[in-house]
Amino acid sequence: MTLTIDAGNTQTKASLFEGDRCVAAACPLAADGRQLREWVRQYPVERCAISDVGDRSLPLRTLFAELEIPTLCVTGLTPAPLKNGYHTPETLGADRWAAAVGAADLLPAHSLLIIDAGTCVTYDFVAASGEYLGGNISPGLALRFAALHEHTAQLPLVDPQGATPNPGIDTPTAIRTGVLTGWQDEITGCIDRVRQAHADLQIFLTGGDAVYFSTDASLPLRREADLVARGLKVLAVYNTVGRK
């Protein structure tokens, strides 16, 4: 079985895979390691892969060394069953690389747009030939709300949950509607531009803020909450089995 750790900017998620099936998940993962020790006690964990965007996983890596579990710390340079066409793979976030690998594993031989709506919104493109070509990064919802509050004299910090009349009827709804509408339009605009160039495009949406994105049923969009975890699983297996 394969254990994956996705240590993001906001929280850490652990997933346990038996083959292609996720059999257990913990989010947010408690820092004391108790849940992981319990999984290792219950299941035959053979390997682990970690995506860590902020070097938060050191205690977990120490734990896995103690438990003698082979651990892969994923970077943009980690070998994968996907060609990496990024010009600076050493700067590519492990979560972006894992999400691209996970999407290509689910839908091989397709043009793919992977949108991860988290602390940042990342847009990553995989060609039907099986090559990762890169993508874009923009601020996520929390950063947009925080920027308005922190870089103005009077605007309050607004929660994304709540009424969104258009136009806004007071300052909180003006901010909420403005931020959410701008974020939605940005994502929709990116999808439209890429679809114009790739008629066969398939779209994956993941990340904690994906729930705020609304779309019509005609769009070829798949919501995959475990996309990064799936990619980490593929990378762990590929680097411990496929490359022997």
TrEMBL record:
A monovalent cation. Ammonium or potassium. Its cofactor is K(+); NH4(+). Substrate binds at Y86, G93, A94, D95, R96, T171. The active site is at D95. GO terms for biological process: coenzyme A biosynthetic process. GO terms for molecular function: ATP binding; metal ion binding; pantothenate kinase activity. Coiled coil: none annotated. Keywords: ATP-binding, Coenzyme A biosynthesis, Cytoplasm, Kinase, Metal-binding, Nucleotide-binding, Potassium, Transferase. It catalyses: (R)-pantothenate + ATP = (R)-4'-phosphopantothenate + ADP + H(+). K(+) binds at D116. It is an enzyme of class 2 (transferase). Its EC number is 2.7.1.33. The keyword Nucleotide-binding applies. InterPro entries: ATPase_NBD (IPR043129), Type_III_PanK (IPR004619). GO terms for cellular component: cytoplasm. ATP binds at D6, A7, G8, N9, T10, Q11, T12, K13, T119. Pathway: Cofactor biosynthesis; coenzyme A biosynthesis; CoA from (R)-pantothenate: step 1/5. SUPFAM superfamilies: Actin-like ATPase domain. Its main location: cytoplasm. It comes from the Bacteria. It is found in: Cytoplasm. Catalyzes the phosphorylation of pantothenate (Pan), the first step in CoA biosynthesis. HAMAP family: Pantothen_kinase_3 (MF_01274). Homodimer. Belongs to the type III pantothenate kinase family. This is Type III pantothenate kinase. It comes from Alloprevotella tannerae ATCC 51259. The gene is coaX.
